[in-house]
Specification:
By secondary structure, this protein is of the alpha+beta class. It is built from ten helices and eleven strands. The protein has helices at residues 61-72, 95-110, 117-132, 140-145, 181-186, 194-213, 216-222, 229-232, 239-248, 270-287; strands at 3-13, 22-38, 42-49, 78-84, 148-153, 158-162, 168-175, 253-256, 263-268, 291-297, 304-305. The radius of gyration is 19 Å and the shape is globular. It binds adenosine-5'-diphosphate.
Length: 307
């Protein structure tokens, strides 16, 4: 095969207590990419529609991740990439991760899958480093593995795939304000108290147990963040209101998606997720900030081939 078209899912990272370690792939929103083998060496981004982003290989995360892949691949040719963006850059739902994972997943497929998914996570993390200054894996891992993923360790990289409870739905609202990932990292403290650490790792354990056993109450109780959310939520106008509305409308939990400004809520069943969407819209309609809203089931496969 010489060419492939793929769907690259949006992802929610930093899931409440799981800063930098827990992420999940979405189904209703994602980019499309076409990747083509070429005789000419190197990576060329030949088309980019939907967002104003650089075509230059070293300035685009797809190019940077692709170069990391090529450096390790036993292959004499190169690749051409077309990117059709549906996920807005800087939205907090893994716009950069969709492009970097889509590129390396498709290249790997076209060469007969010589690399493991964990290898692909490493290549894609080079793209994340370009986007935010930090090579975090909690968006790229779920995009590649599907469903939820836990980054148990960064050195060495150890990704634990976690299946999704079948009735879990996400509602994501993206207020149209810009927060750069790099800026929202700068305001974080580098030390945490033991008291908060205890609460946080209790919740991470509870969340993982709840996901594996499909215990929706336990998932809800564990969707708490005592460390990052109190600091970062200050950058998102209306955050406290959205969270209050989401929980009163029946959501199990609600938090900042990635580094914001998107906010996610998890619900049991699509009907509740739709009711939550209606409830949280009102906050931004009242403040007068434009927004996008998505209700999505969890994407259990990650990147997939489309015709
Ligand atoms: P998100 O959380 O939505 O991924 P980030 O702030 O992490 O947003 O990443 C967006 C940054 O990455 C922007 O500065 C953007 O210019 C840069 N970037 C480079 N290439 C791409 C790409 N192909 N898709 C999205 N963002 C890209």
């Amino acid at each position: 095969m010489e060419e492939i078209r793929v769907f690259c899912p949006a992802t929610i990272a930093n899931i409440s207590c799981g800063f930098d370690v827990l992420g999940v792939a979405l189904d209703a929103v994602g980019d499309e990419m076409v990747v083509r083998k070429t005789h000419e060496k190197g990576i060329r981004i030949t088309k980019l529609e939907g967002q104003d982003l650089p075509l230059e290989t070293k300035k685009n995360v797809a190019g940077v991740a692709g170069l990391a892949f090529l450096e390790k691949a036993d292959y004499n040719g190169g690749f051409e990439i077309e990117i059709y963006k549906k996920i807005k850059a800087g939205s907090g739902i893994g716009s950069s991760a969709a492009s970097s994972t889509g590129a390396v997943w498709a290249m790997n497929y076209l060469l007969g899958n010589p690399f493991s998914k964990t290898d692909l996570v490493k290549f894609a993390m080079e793209g994340e480093k370009l986007a935010s200054g930090v090579a975090h894996a909690d968006n790229v891992a779920p995009a590649l593995f599907g469903a939820f993923t836990l980054v148990r360790s960064y050195t060495p990289l150890d990704i634990i795939p976690i299946k999704n409870p079948s009735e879990l739905f996400a509602t994501v609202i993206h207020p149209q304000i810009e927060i750069k990932t790099a800026d929202s990292r700068k305001i974080l403290k580098t030390n945490i108290s033991l008291e908060n650490g205890i609460k946080q790792w209790g919740n991470v354990g509870g969340l993982i147990a709840g996901l594996f056993t499909e215990d929706y109450d336990l998932i809800g109780r564990s969707l708490e963040d005592h460390i990052i959310e109190p600091i970062r939520s200050i950058l998102i106008p209306g955050f406290d209101d959205v969270k209050k509305e989401a929980l009163s409308a029946g959501a199990m939990g609600c938090g900042i998606s990635g580094s914001g400004p998107s906010i996610f809520a998890f619900s049991k069943g699509k009907q509740t997720a739709d009711i939550v969407a209606d409830a949280i819209k009102k906050t931004y309609q009242n403040i007068g900030i434009d927004f996008d809203i998505h209700v999505s089931k969890i994407n259990s496969e990650g990147i997939k081939i489309i015709k």
